[in-house]
Amino acid sequence: MNQRKIGTLPLCCMMIGSVLGSGIIILPPLALDAAGPWAIVGWILTVLFGVAFAYLFAKIGTFYPGEGGAASAVDKAFGSAAKRLATYTLSGAVLFGPVAVILTIVEYLPPAVRPDNPMGRAAIGAAIQIVCTGLLLSGLKNMSRFTLVLATTATLLLLAGSGMVLFTHVGPIAPLPEFNGSGFGYTMLLLFWAVVGWEVVGNFGDEVVDPRRTVPRAAVVAAIVIGVVSLAVAGALQYGQLPPEAGHGVSTLLYPLFGAFAPWVMCVLTVALCTTTYLVIVGAVARLLAHLSRESGLPDVLDCRNKHNVPWVGVVFYTVIHLCQFGLVGLDALDLAGLVALADGFFLANALLGTLAAVRLFVTPLPRIVAVLLSLGVFAVLTQAHWPVLMILSGMLLFVVYRARTRVLQAG
After folding, report:
1. H helices within 331-385, ranges in order?
2. Those residues with Cβ within 8 angstroms of residue 295's Cβ, 6 or more apart along the chain or in another chain
3. Is residue 100 part of a domain?
4. Which residues of 50-68 are buried (b: 16+ CB within 10 A; e: fewer)?
5. pLDDT at residue 3, rounded to an integer
6. Would the pLDDT of 347 be above 90?
7. CATH of the domain at 335
8. What's residue 1's pLDDT?
9. CA–CA gap between residue 345 and residue 190 (Å, rounded)
10. In a domain, 2, yes or no
11. CA quadruple 182, 198, 49, 353: dihedral positive or negative?
12. Interatomic CA distance for residues 180 and 2, integer angstroms
């Protein structure tokens, strides 16, 4: 066996950690604020979305394994122009999303050590960013060992805390109030952050043992675990009744188990999940850019590798961009919620391209039906994105169409 390649369990833990990530920490309270009691309905729909995404993109990963990932399926379905658009949207999402992930770690530091000013929080975020860059450059084998421990620890903590609250601290459950369409629509946009990560599972295919068997197995187990954890956390936070000293947000779920030590345990949990998300998403996109540099107009330097076969130029590029954004955070020009909303729009556009490609490529009924339903759902949520993001996406589409048309005319 190639010692650089990983098997089912490490890949499964990478999926769990990357998809749960910062979303399971920041989204439950945001969903409650936006949708109120209807938040739990949003979470149920999101879990169904997640299972469908896991199934669909695992299928894509088995048919198109390699660093191109879902973009290779888009190329097969719609041509190279669509593949470039998929690359632009995913790359755009990774310009903003990872900073939100790391800021989540900073926001959940215990009060005793968390800075009370934007510049201090930005400095800690930048330091965490540099550590993550070092882990990315160490290679997938070393990275997977690290994420195996982190994802397992975080999952067990979330299940234990949520289970304790659901069994011992739940009060009377009131009926749902009148439905608020606008609030629920915005909630679904935010909750899409909870399924981000499935679209990059195929990008590590070249570094996985027997991807046609390993990727689907890992995806099935990961989807089940993520669904159970998400509903447990959302339900416990919405229906649990805990004393004021328990704090706020997801950290309250750890109070029945750890008491005054809950903020410190929450810090460990947040570091575990968010670090895994950062490593998987940025590592996957760096590999995608390296793959495309070999067959399109992207600079060849993006495919420069270190001794661990990591495309280090792409990793360093994103590191620099993210460090600049931490500077803006320090100046109070960017915040966590804004970064999530920006990244979600790009992730949604990328996911829509992947699901539409699956509609065209798959011929068997089940995956094709799943792809059609997902495409409709993703498009509906995408319409809730902020107008600047929709304008940028429209500009990307027009640019890709213009470039494709120009090449056709030149060839003719």
Report:
1. 336-361, 365-382
2. none
3. yes
4. bbbbbbbbbbbbbebbbbb
5. 47
6. no
7. 1.20.1740.10
8. 37
9. 10
10. no
11. positive
12. 54
